[in-house]
């Protein structure tokens, strides 16, 4: 954890700054990544947050994203707290078969209509050098993420 992380739990939800917002003319591909805000949808090109209305999510897609964000956020915060639940939370975040990762993959799949939607996999300290889900070799994307060509998992 860096210095910023320890203060994050005290940061209230606020509108994100314009620099963190995607302003690309066209959104070609997206990925899901919890960033401590309510909106985990990001642009593949600039890594900025994509307003849900820009990609015209259906109500059921919105519900699925919101449910996953709440679950992932709750577990992530338990990990950040470094208390009694830290080890449990870490397992949930890294395990390929955990409910939160299965859910995230399902939501990314549900959002892959018309454009590709990846799923940013949690890792800490050491970036995985193969897919944390299927162990495939990873491609390097222009946005500096590594991506599994099979699962569309990003690390
Ligand atoms: Zn963008
Ligand atoms: Zn994979």
Q: What percentage of residues falls in helices of 4 or more residues?
A: 25-40%
Order of helices and strands: EEHHHEEEE
Number of DSSP strand runs: 6
**Mind telling me the C-alpha Rg?**
15 Å
Give an overview in words.
The chain has 155 residues and is of the alpha/beta class. It has one domain (24-154). The chain is 29% helix and 12% strand. The protein contains three helices and six strands; from the N terminus they run E-E-H-H-H-E-E-E-E. It has helices at 59-81, 86-94, 99-111; strands spanning 29-32, 41-43, 116-120, 139-140, 146-147, 153-154. The protein has a four-stranded mixed beta sheet, with helices on one face. The chain has a two-stranded antiparallel ribbon with strand order 4-5. A hairpin with an 8-residue loop joins strand 1 (29-32) and strand 2 (41-43). Helix 1 (59-81) crosses helix 2 and helix 1 (59-81) packs antiparallel against helix 3. The model is unreliable at 1-12 (pLDDT under 50). The structure holds zinc ion (2 copies).
Short characterization:
With 155 residues, this protein is α/β, with parallel strands linked by helices. Helix content is 29%, strand content 12%.
Notable features of this structure?
155 residues; alpha/beta; four-stranded mixed beta sheet; two-stranded antiparallel sheet; disordered N terminus; binds zinc ion
Helix and strand arrangement:
Blueprint: E1 29-32, E2 41-43, H1 59-81, H2 86-94, H3 99-111, E3 116-120, E4 139-140, E5 146-147, E6 153-154
This protein binds zinc ion (ZN) (2 copies).
């Amino acid at each position: 954890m860096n210095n910023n992380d320890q203060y994050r739990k005290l940061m209230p939800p606020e509108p994100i700054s314009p620099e963190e917002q995607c302003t690309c003319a066209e959104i070609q591909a997206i990925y899901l990544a919890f960033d401590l805000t309510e909106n985990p949808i990001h642009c593949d090109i600039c890594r900025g947050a994509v307003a849900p209305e820009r990609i015209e999510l259906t109500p059921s897609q919105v519900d699925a994203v919101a449910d996953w964000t709440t679950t992932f956020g709750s577990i992530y915060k338990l990990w950040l707290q470094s208390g009694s639940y830290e080890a449990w939370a870490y397992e949930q975040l890294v395990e390929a078969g955990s409910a939160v990762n299965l859910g995230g993959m399902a939501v990314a799949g549900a959002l892959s209509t018309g454009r590709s939607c990846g799923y940013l996999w949690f890792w800490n300290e050491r970036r995985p050098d193969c897919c944390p889900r299927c162990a495939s070799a990873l491609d390097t994307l222009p946005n500096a993420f590594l991506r599994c060509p099979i699962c569309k998992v990003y690390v």
